[in-house]
Amino acid sequence: MAIMETHPSNTHVYQAMFLLDNQEVRQDGFNAVRDSVRQTLEKHGLTPRVLRLWGERELAYPIGGRTRATYLLGWLEGSGDAVNRAKRDFYLVGPVFRVLFTREDEIPAEELAFGIQEISDEEVVIPEEVEEPEEEAHEEPVVETAAEAAAAGETTPGQAEAKDQPAAEAAEAAETAPVAAESVTEEERKDG
């Protein structure tokens, strides 16, 4: 009688993307960091079939002060519980600061060809973090009230438009001229 190899029904295929801290990749080397990821996966019962360098790139938005990361693409097999345990472990300690697991039907043949990628650490170029210049403070434009502009002998945009319009249109333009959030009382108008 032949014995068939069976996988438990809760074993699935997952694609994973690991964002690695560039400082740790620079310090320890890509292969050491990749091996650390592999050990964490195996510790929690996951079987990594593919772990390969996907590249070093800029992040879409800063995460924990980081603006760049080394991306490690993985294909693995295991249970959902093992994925959750590994994810929790990655976030507690180590070079992985973000990870995403997605359940897939199978590992593509072209990905299986990569296997656990061995790459010379000298081939992995990790640029130094570049300090982004802080944006200059943006000042809001000062808006004067119509009364303040009149007192200073200036015209408001509505009044400037009124000079080129007939009297009826000028009155309407003056009513719709922008006025600051401050309101002017009748008494202030008489005094002004």
What does the model show?
The protein has 192 residues and is an alpha+beta fold. Helix 1 crosses helix 2 and helix 2 crosses helix 3. The N terminus is likely disordered. The chain folds into two domains: 109 residues, Ribosomal protein S6/Translation elongation factor EF1B (Alpha-Beta Plaits, 2-Layer Sandwich); 46 residues, no CATH class. It has a four-stranded antiparallel β-sheet with strand order 2-3-1-4. The protein is 34% helix and 25% strand.
Give a brief rundown of this model.
Helices cover 34% and strands 25% of the residues. The protein has 192 residues and is of the alpha+beta class.
What gyration radius follows from the Cα positions, in whole Å?
A: 32 Å
Which second-level CATH architecture of the largest domain applies? 2-Layer Sandwich
The H-and-E topology, N to C, reads as: EHHEEHEHHHHH
Number of domains: 2
Overall form: globular
Query: Averaging pLDDT over every residue, what do you get?
Result: 77
Assign the CATH superfamily of the largest domain: Ribosomal protein S6/Translation elongation factor EF1B
Q: What percent of residues adopt helix (DSSP H or I)?
A: 25-40%
Biggest pleated sheet: 4 strands, antiparallel
* Beta-strand residue fraction: 25-35%
The side-by-side strand order for the widest beta sheet comes to: 2-3-1-4
How many angstroms does the end-to-end distance come to?
Answer: 107 Å
CATH topology of the largest domain: the name is Alpha-Beta Plaits
Total DSSP helices:
8
Structural class: alpha+beta
Oligomer: single chain
Q: According to CATH, what is the class of the largest domain? A: Alpha Beta
- Count the E strands: 4
Low-pLDDT ranges:
1-6, 132-138, 177-183
